[in-house]
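Usage example:
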Amino acid sequence: MLNIWFGDMPDAIYDTSTYFKHTYRDQWITDPLSVEMIRDVDQSEVIGENLIQSPVLGAISPIQLSGGVKTLILISKVRDQVFNASKCGDNCAKWLLKIAETRKVVVNLRHLMDFGDGEFKIRVMNKKKIAHCMRELVLLAGEYV
Amino acid sequence: MKGKHTVKVSDKRVRYSFELVRNITVVQGNSGTGKTKLFDLVSAYSRMKDRSGVQIVCDKPCVALYADSDWQTRLGNTHDSIVFIDEDAEYISSHTFASTIRHTDSYYVIFCRESLHGLPYSVEEIYEIKTSKRLHT
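Running the assembly step on the lines above writes:
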């Protein structure tokens, strides 16, 4: 399940791009989930571990991916850190839920991300309560962001 | 610094064109739309000017403020400019930052999804980047 701490969280990794730059492993990029996320969020195709084809920027390296995708990859691969998911736009929301389908995922959000009109299960850690839709999430988390 | 300022930033691959009408503009929106790329272009131009390969057309200097501990000093030395700040800068949500920029004469373009509680910006100055092929506005 996706667990979110809303608002300031001093121990969370705030600058996810710098953390990604210095910690990512080549095989993360060609992982099928990463390939899907890069295709969906950045509209770019993974050619190999060190090469991604962007429709706007041309051939780019993994560190030139968007901040949102880099943060998603970190969340999916690094389990002993909490990352600032406010680097992710609303187009990353479904991927946060997907990563958290099979295990407990903890992230920090400093804004209210739009998780869409559907139903979901998100634990608001500040309140120790579960939201099942955006209306519930806004009511639980609004005071913290 | 007052009034409208048109900013055009480009290299050989991408072009950005936009108009700033107030001293604080917040840029949000989906991931992968080119916010960090715009900051990188301004950052390169700040350091190397025309030798960066980046072109900036604006009636005011455009500078990038980095996510480092020296930001207050550099902000104090920046006047009558358009200052770009990327979302990796943790200080942007601090009261110190809000207090500091209130006493400057520059315009600010801040890439950030968080609420900037201490800053007097209007909802009309929260922008998203729209892409048309390689032109971003």
